[in-house]
Amino acid sequence: MNQAQNMQNRSHRQGLSLQEKQVFIAKALPLLAQHTFGYICSVIGSFDQRMGRHCGSALRCRLNGRRAILTALHVIQEAQQAPLGVAISTTYGKPPYVVHGTINIDQIADLAVYFLPDDYPCPETSFWPSGRVDRALDKISTDYLFLHGFPGPTSYPSQHLGGVVSTSLPYGAMQRLENLPSGLQSFQFAVEYDPVGMANETGAAQELLDPHGLSGSPVWRIGVSGRSSRNWSPNYSLLVGILTQWRPDDKVLIATSTERLPPGW
Fold it and tell me: Computed from CA positions of residues 159, 164, 169, 175, in that sequence, does the dihedral angle turn out positive or negative?
């Protein structure tokens, strides 16, 4: 079953036609991209104080009242192989922040949380609020999912620009409910990533982009489930997961659900 059929079946259950849902999504995705861009950052394997290599994506957020970086553990492990270790992007035109101190990990779920020291230079408005983290899975299947991060093919180190340059990819899709990949854990969910049915913001067909570098990207449910699309706002979006895998043969991305976050996170 392809993504369009998934959307159509679930649209009927929610009282929306496929065409109505497509129109709504076409309007909602640019708003979500703008709304979430200020919260995402790049995890960098640092070569020196300014230069490095993009290893994955992450979310700046508040967890239990503390400023934190939330990403995939394997992204951190890759960045740790660089000469100066892990760095996190800050604000546009500013050098990345070299990580020091403890990084909390969940090896089974492929999650990592770094609680930021006070000297991390970023405004308070750049942290996703803890009140908009959904630690349950009950509405993921009936909502539209949205992720935003930095793919590796669009990130590169630039001596001329004095740092790592990255272009983000906002992407929306439904949860895969059938023909699931093998070995999927109870705390994981699959997001459609099939070139069949992919379209850009204008509705034109779009080729599949290699998602390497998107690992660690936040995944939101946009918050339209259970309410009229006419009353929807990007402020209804809730964090539901962190992207950890790409299964190209199954044409899905795999995310670890925020239900896996320990209480102390």
Answer: positive
